[in-house]
């Protein structure tokens, strides 16, 4: 069974693929989709997440292959702009390195490509966390930590309940192990890298690494925001998407890294 995909937008318009973060689903783009009604949107739920629980085991490279197939089959002209957040940004970068022929442009926000401390501890704590994960105060605490807006509580709680120990561990290991892929040096399409001003130092360093690897890449800090800024401020995100697609001026809240 393939990935579940939401498809909206006018026929003949440019196609954008939106890739969500870890442990959620395409629902995180709901407000962004409304703000980008003029374009053709493909919004998949990645494997083991959202409505793609039966789409196979998640891996970054494997999901990049699925996205390439999705673009070939359903994007207008067989090519698309691809934008992702966090785990979705890593899939975006993987796709850019492996299948640049289907990518018109890439927009990756909050893309980890360096080692990060604490992954082993997180996985070691899973036996304690998983039996408690559906308790509402813990769901709410996780939402606050991840800066997920309150209106998504029912969606977030549903995803939390569907999460298994194996899938959680798989996603955290994939996320932590991801590095700059080969092939970015020959990419010529526009590549936009963003990182929230309040994100960890390692995320800003990762953005520098991506710009160094991809000659066509530009990196920007999103002033005043954290990792989940595309969900917190979908209007700003839509403005950035439009500017990236048309090579227009970016909003003032973005400043060069």
UniProtKB/TrEMBL annotation:
One of its GO terms (biological process) is acylglycerol catabolic process. One of its GO terms (cellular component) is membrane. Keywords: Hydrolase. Gene3D superfamilies: alpha/beta hydrolase. Pfam families: Abhydrolase_6. Residues 16-239 form the AB hydrolase-1 domain. Coiled coil: none annotated. GO terms for molecular function: monoacylglycerol lipase activity. SUPFAM superfamilies: alpha/beta-Hydrolases. PANTHER family: MONOACYLGLYCEROL LIPASE, MONOACYLGLYCEROL LIPASE ABHD6. This is Alpha/beta hydrolase. It comes from Candidatus Cryosericum hinesii. The lineage of its organism: Bacteria, Pseudomonadati, Caldisericota/Cryosericota group, Candidatus Cryosericota, Candidatus Cryosericia.
């Amino acid at each position: 069974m393939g990935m579940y995909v939401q498809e909206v937008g006018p026929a003949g318009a440019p196609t954008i693929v939106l890739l969500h973060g870890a442990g959620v689903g395409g629902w995180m783009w709901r407000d962004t989709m409304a703000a980008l009604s003029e374009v053709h949107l493909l919004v998949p739920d990645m494997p083991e997440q959202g409505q793609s629980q039966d789409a196979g085991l998640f891996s970054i490279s494997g999901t990049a292959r699925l996205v390439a197939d999705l673009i070939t089959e359903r994007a207008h002209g067989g090519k698309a702009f691809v934008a992702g957040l966090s785990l979705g940004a890593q899939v975006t970068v993987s796709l850019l390195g492996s299948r640049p022929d289907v990518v018109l442009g890439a927009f990756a926000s909050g893309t980890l490509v360096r080692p990060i401390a604490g992954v082993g501890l997180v996985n070691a704590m899973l036996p304690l966390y998983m039996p408690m994960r559906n308790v509402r105060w813990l769901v709410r605490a996780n939402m606050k930590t991840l800066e997920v807006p309150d209106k998504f509580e029912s969606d977030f709680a549903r995803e939390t309940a569907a999460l298994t120990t194996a899938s959680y561990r798989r996603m955290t290991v994939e996320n932590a192990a991801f590095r700059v892929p080969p092939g970015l040096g020959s990419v010529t399409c526009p590549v936009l890298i963003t990182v929230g001003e309040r994100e960890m130092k390692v995320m800003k360093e990762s953005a520098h690494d991506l710009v160094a690897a991809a000659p066509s890449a530009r990196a920007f800090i999103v002033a005043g925001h954290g990792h989940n800024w595309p969900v917190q401020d979908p209007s700003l995100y839509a403005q950035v998407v439009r500017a990236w697609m048309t090579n227009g001026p970016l909003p003032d809240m973005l400043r060069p890294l």
